Each structure stands twice: as C-alpha cells, then as structure tokens.
Amino acid sequence: MALSSRCLRYLALAAAVLFMVLGVTDAALSLLLALPLFSLLTVPKLLHAPLLVPLAPALLAVPVGVLALSAARGQRLWRLLAVAVLQVALGLALAALAGWQLQLSFSARVETDFGALMSESLLDAKWQPVYHELRCCGLAGPASFHGSIPTACCAREEVAPSAAGPCATLYSTGCVAPAADRMRAVLRSSAEVHAGAAALMWLCAFLSAMYIDSLKRAARKRSELQVNHEDEPLRTPITNQKF
Questions:
Q1: Which residues are CB-neighbours of 171 under 8 A, at least 6 positions away?
Q2: The Cα angle at residue 11 between residues 9 and 15, in degrees rounded to 5
Q3: Where is this region: Disordered (predicted)?
Q4: Which tens digits make up the pLDDT trace of 123-160?
C-alpha cells in the first residue's frame, strides 16, 4: 500500500510538471501557427478570437500546474481536488475551442470576409508579398478580383486587355481561394494542437484523481485504526500478589 501510494504521488508530481509543459507548448505552437498568417494576410476579424483566445487557457495551465505540484508535494487532499477540477476545466476549454476552430475551417465566411477585405484595397502595396507567397499576383482590378496571372508576370503592374500571351490569361482561382485555404489549414492545425493538449490535460487530471483516491483511502484507514484503538479496553497490569 505504501509503495503504491508513493508511486501514485510520483505520478501526480510528473502530471503537474507535464501540465505546465503542455500549456507552454500549446501556447508556443499556437503562436507559431498564427503569427505567420497575421504577418502575411489581413486576417478577417471573424478569425481573431478563435486564433488568439486559446492562448488564455494554455497559459493558465502554468499556474495550475504550479498549484498541482505544491499540492502533490504537501499531500493536500482538498487542494489537489480543486486542482484536478481546474485541470479538467482547462482541458474542456481547449477542446471546445478546438471544435470552434474546426467548425470555422469549413465555413464559407472565411473566404467571403477575406474577399471583402481584399477588394477594399486591391492595389495596395501590402498585397505584393501575398501575390508572391500564394502565387496569385497580378490582379488587374476589381472586375478581375477572382482572377490572377502567372507568377512570371508579377513584375508587370497591370495587364493590357489586348495583350497576347500567358500574361493576358487570368486564372479562375485568384488570391481569395489560396488565402482562404491557408487560413483553413492554420485553423485545422491549431485545432489538432488544442485537441491533443486537451486529451493530455485530462490524462493529468486522471493521474491527480488517482492520487486523491489514494490519499482518501489512507485517511480512512488511519481513521479506522484510531477508532479501533480508542475502543480497546484498558488493561491493568497483573502484579505478583502474596496471599
């Protein structure tokens, strides 16, 4: 029993450290996925919250992990119970946000909202990196908004309607679809990261719950031993008596 309780304590300590590592890793991967997207594209406001809000529960995992580590080292039963509840709650939050991101990755609003942003400033210089990155450069104007010309024609500022050759041929995809695909890919990758982190957080909560159960059983056993000891009748020592 003592060895089992000791092993469970070590597992709870390891789970507390893992919980902190999960929070930092999830936040770092979220930033690695989102920051290049924000630097390359004007991301629609629809996606700001789904991409940035998950940072909150991910970073909150660090103080919760510190509390779990302290509670496991001190064998504080009620504090461990509160920490396990927080671990489950943070895992649920990340799982819900992962589902939200996955749902948005299939939404048509990603493409329509980005198209509206792009059409408002179609010829701005800020889109030049996008043209090269997504290979959709050479937009001639709002009328050909959903079209683009080959990458070899990127140096040309505009395409003359009467020009012959490949630079006069507009593709049907344009920049909207490739940009929307990039956003959807980031949303799906981010959802996978958060879902994996949530699953591992629940594992940490399960290990904490096992240690809590071990502490409860140990406390119950101590209480039973104490009650049995109090119920034992007092025995007077027998001394040698002469009659």
A1: 136, 147, 148, 149, 150
A2: 115
A3: 224-243
A4: 566 676 776 677 665 444 444 445 554 545 554 444 44
